[in-house]
Amino acid sequence: MELFQQMQEEGMSPNRFTFVPVLKACTSLRALEKGRRAHEQIIQLGCASDVFVGSSLVDMYAKCGSIEDARRVFDSMPSHDLVSWNAIISNVFVGSSLVDMYVKCGRMDDAWRVFNRTPTSDAISWNVMILGYVKCGQGDKALELFQQMQWEGMPLRNVVSWNVMISGLVKCGQGHKALELFQQMQQEGVEPSSVTFVGVLNACASVVALEEGRLVHQQIVKSGCESNIFVGSSLVDMYAKCGSMEEACKVFNKMPLRNVVSWNAILGGFAMHGHGKEALEHFKQMRSEGVRPDNTTFVCLLSACSHAGLVDEGLRCFESMSTDCMISARLEHYTCMVDLLGHAGRLHEAEAIIKTMPYKPDAAVWKALLNACRVHGNMEMGERIAKQVLKVDPGNAASYVLLSNIYAAVGKWNLSAILQQQRLERGVKKQPGCSWIEVNNKVHMFILNDQDHPNMIDVHAELKRLSQQMHEAGYVPDTSFGLHDMEEEEKASHLCHHSEKLAIAFGLISTPPGAPLRILKNLHICGDCHTSTKFIAKMLSRTIIVRDAKRFHHFKDGVCSCMDYW
């Protein structure tokens, strides 16, 4: 380009052979305006009808992102050669379609290669790539690509880009990052849409960020999106999953229109909180309003019956699903039935359902029965069922843990130790226990034996104080939930540092006396933590709400809402 300028300054007139490399230079530099000026000279010098120059112009405009100009030049050409056809076919839109095709086929490496070769990627290409990484569970790559957008073909990111990223991070289990991104989005002056609010509410629900969710609710009201049926349903879901069924019901009752998604949100909330009778009453109301239930509706209903111990009602719901609603039972419905009967102690009936169902049993349905064996201390059946789980899913650490707990509960420490050794030899890793708590609109995460949190010294001091106070009140640690190769005193100390206990202790020292605490746990709460939380709630007159991997536990006055049935 510098030589081309020098050439003209020295009075030499360019010809068609000059313009082809000049246009290629503009293409490589993405210098659209310089390319336009070269185009003007081409017209002035009468070179526009040349097929080689025309092809180079089409290629330059397409690769610099001006598809309209590329098409205009192509249509004005008196004749076309293979180069000009190739130039117009390979514009940004075809590149986006190729990226989309590879992403949908799960070929992210190929998608990335095409994306990198597309000269000027548009918003569609960026969003497709980001969403592709999200679907493949590569949230970090999605976030990295999103941040790269501000340096490439997209200096300004539109609301669609933000929505894709926020929803993607939630799907990848990174709700706290999604909330940080939402704040950044607002700082950059991008106005959130109804889709944004749905994604952010899902993020709040995923990390039990109730206060953050309430702030988002205020924004929704100001924006006028509250009447949107999907936003309203997401609000119901958020409040339910953050432990506030009162607010979930309030939003649900105010909704001007409710579809099956809205009803499933409120029924799912009742199920998680163990409110079986309320779920059944709302289901009747749903039918009376003419809303047709779907598969998810019955998963919610059966779960609600299971968590509330309503066996007969659950059996009737399961039967009415096919007879009244013409919905064929799926594997997840059978899993709910196994869980329902298993928790009621009807283990042989639960096993019979697995043997007679028209589906091949997966790990989930066998695990439901295995957990029931643990609850009811049936070691013989537990051993047999655990083998089935490991046969279907040999890398399932939960099966080892559940069977190990069964052995430990009946004092079979040697068998528990052998099982743990087998797990280690087979390279099966346990998922680490994590707990989250929201304090002052900020979500704090704790892991087992956490030492990294800045307030950990105070947390340990609070745990020590609580431990002494609980012992005085009659608490005895249940060391069957500790590690098998520890002495009793060491097991008790280990139990004291479970992630939910760390989160509770942090909440106690960080909130005013009497304020409720809301904890999220990624795994099932263990029996010792369940017992100790009842003691803490009674001693300190606190309501402590814990959402574990399966349901909610509301601890108050020394009693849990699950009635020790989980």
UniProtKB/TrEMBL annotation:
Under Pfam families, the record lists: DYW_deaminase (PF14432), E_motif (PF20431), PPR (PF01535), PPR_2 (PF13041)
Q: Where is the signal peptide?
A: none
InterPro entries, per this entry? DYW_dom, E_motif, PPR_At4g14850-like_plant, PPR_rpt, TPR-like_helical_dom_sf
Q: Which keywords does UniProt give here? A: Repeat
| PPR repeat intervals | 50-84, 122-156, 158-192, 259-293
| Domain of life, per lineage | Eukaryota
Q: Which Gene3D superfamilies match?
A: Tetratricopeptide repeat domain (1.25.40.10)
Does the record's keyword annotation contain Heme? no
In what residue span(s) does the DYW domain sit?
A: 474-566
Q: Which NCBIfam families match?
A: PPR
| PANTHER family tied to this protein | PENTATRICOPEPTIDE REPEAT-CONTAINING PROTEIN
Q: What is this protein called?
A: DYW domain-containing protein
